[in-house]
Specification:
Layout (H helix, E strand, L loop, with lengths): L2 E3 L6 E4 L5 H13 L4 E4 L5 H12 L3 E5 L2 E5 L13 E2 L4 H11 L6 E5 L10 H10 L2 E5 L3 E7 L7 E3 L5 H11 L5 E5 L7 H8 L4 E4 L2 E5 L8 E3 L4 H13 L4 E8 L6 H9 L2 E3 L8 E3 L2 E9 L7 E2 L3 H4 L4 H10 L3 E4 L12 H10 L4 E5 L2 E5 L7 E4 L4 H13 L4 E4 L11 H9 L1
Parallel strand pairs: 2-15, 3-14, 6-7, 10-11, 19-20, 23-24
Antiparallel strand pairs: 1-24, 3-5, 4-5, 7-9, 8-9, 11-13, 12-13, 15-18, 16-18, 17-18, 20-22, 21-22
Bound molecules: shikimate-3-phosphate.
């Protein structure tokens, strides 16, 4: 589906972003691992998180949808059932990386995970390596890519240093750690999102953090009654970006998760001079279950270029394409470096963002690990191919609203992976 987004007059009104994708995936998986029913309130209804519910059922969990909630009756930690065929993860990289952690500890069970053409290009050696060290047998195509076959075994507790900061890999090892024979420690070179740690703590697991290291002790069972999923800051980021670069805009974003490990983008915006009032800092949020939640008041205004690098990168990883877009409207240069992980997301997001925005009139250049944007000129408009990547489709839409001539997004339907109502929500704010 191709959709044209013409220049917008302004965006006004209030909106609650869709439920958090990362937390929904994790809640469904922990639900499947728990012996008693887990009620997940405000579960994300989108293609990626539907894949996780299907995977949970295939492995023996009973999944019941109740309007905005989902009830998962799990199998218990060690009793996953043989799915009787490959599990299709669709486009969901988080499912692809997290599920092997649980499967690794299912003695005698062999499960294959596969997905769409984009998934087949996403590396899994990063999870295979620690799981093998723990004692599981994990095979992948060309040693690196899906389909991936996990043969569960008796797991050893290990100490593992992640070569790249990745919440997906960290979470995979933490799930396997539940089934190991002692306490497992994972170290990360920089902090990444900590939703798994928060949920495990709620589920009665013994878990500790020291700086960049997390230690989890094996468990007999998870005790988790309910999980409340907040609004997704990564989805809200597209609305916030639109609110900042379409002149005259004023938006109120409601009930957004403001976990510190997810708000790197909002801190970058504050540095660029973007006006976001209300609490995007964790302390100003109201704690709902495991996660802090807050409202955000956004007003368009002048922006200045900035540099994003180092520890800030994993804290804003999914929003870095938006930093490039904002850079086009900011005074001076905007630089992102140290973000080579962008090359192995749903698309090569360095190439896709640079080629996509260049075609719309941006002065942007790719580097191996990021991009340089010369700002101030805004965007002319044109055509942007989403390349099957949900965040690229939404980037094109926001670019269109702020451009001089509008943008036609090819493959807008990709947005359904994380934000099925995105076009309708934008339209409502433009009215
Ligand atoms: C995610 C972690 C990030 C992010 C992805 C979701 C998660 O990946 O890009 O969209 O839910 O753990 P990495 O932590 O592997 O970089």
């Amino acid at each position: 589906m191709n959709v044209r987004f013409g220049p917008a007059d302004k965006l006004t009104g209030e909106l609650t972003p869709p439920s958090d994708k990362s937390i929904s995936h994790r809640a469904a998986l922990l639900g499947a691992m728990a012996p008693e029913p887990v009620r997940i309130e405000n579960y994300l209804r989108a293609a990626d998180t539907d894949s996780t519910l299907r995977a949970a059922s295939a492995l023996g969990a009973l999944v019941e949808r109740r309007e905005r909630d989902v009830l998962v009756r799990g199998t218990g930690l060690r009793e996953a059932r043989d799915p009787g065929g490959a599990i299709d993860v669709g486009n969901a990289g988080t499912l692809l990386r997290l599920l092997p952690g649980w499967l690794a500890g299912q003695e005698g069970l062999e499960v294959t995970l596969d997905g769409d053409s984009s998934i087949r290009g996403r590396p899994v050696d990063r999870v295979a390596e620690p799981l093998r060290q723990m004692g599981a047998d994990v095979q992948a195509r060309e040693g690196r890519f899906p389909p991936v076959v996990v043969r569960g075994g008796r797991l050893r507790a290990i100490s593992y240093e992640l070569p790249v900061a990745s919440a997906q890999v960290k979470s995979c090892v933490l799930l396997a750690a539940l089934l190991a024979d002692g306490a497992t420690t994972v170290g990360e070179p920089a902090r990444s999102r900590d939703h798994t740690e928060r949920l495990l703590l709620s589920a009665g697991v013994k878990i500790r953090r020291f700086g960049h290291h997390v230690t989890v002790t094996n468990a007999d069972e998870l005790t988790l009654e309910r999980v409340r999923v907040p609004g997704d800051p990564s989805s809200a980021a597209f609305l916030v970006a639109a609110g900042l670069i379409v002149p005259g805009s004023r938006l109120l974003i409601r009930d957004m998760g403001v976990n510190w490990t997810r708000c790197g983008f909002f801190r970058i915006l504050a540095r660029m001079g973007g006006i976001v009032v209300g609490g995007f800092e964790e302390e100003s949020g109201e704690l709902r279950g495991e996660e802090p939640v807050s409202d955000l008041d956004v007003a368009a205004g002048p922006l200045e270029g900035t540099v994003v690098e180092g520890e800030e990168v994993p804290l804003a990883i999914d929003e870095l394409p938006l930093v490039a877009l904002l850079g086009c409207f900011a005074e001076g240069e905007t630089v992102v470096r140290g973000a080579q992980e962008l090359r192995v997301k749903e698309s090569d997001r360095i190439a896709a963002v640079v080629e996509g925005l260049s075609a719309l009139g941006a002065e942007i250049e790719a580097t191996d690990d990021g991009f340089h944007v010369r700002g101030g000129g805004g965007l002319r408009g044109g055509v942007l191919d989403a390349r099957g990547d949900h965040r690229l489709a939404m980037l094109g839409a926001v670019a269109g609203l702020a451009s001089r001539e509008g943008v036609e997004v090819l493959g807008m339907d990709a947005a359904a992976v994380s934000y099925p109502g995105f076009v309708a929500d934008l339209e409502a704010l433009c009215r």
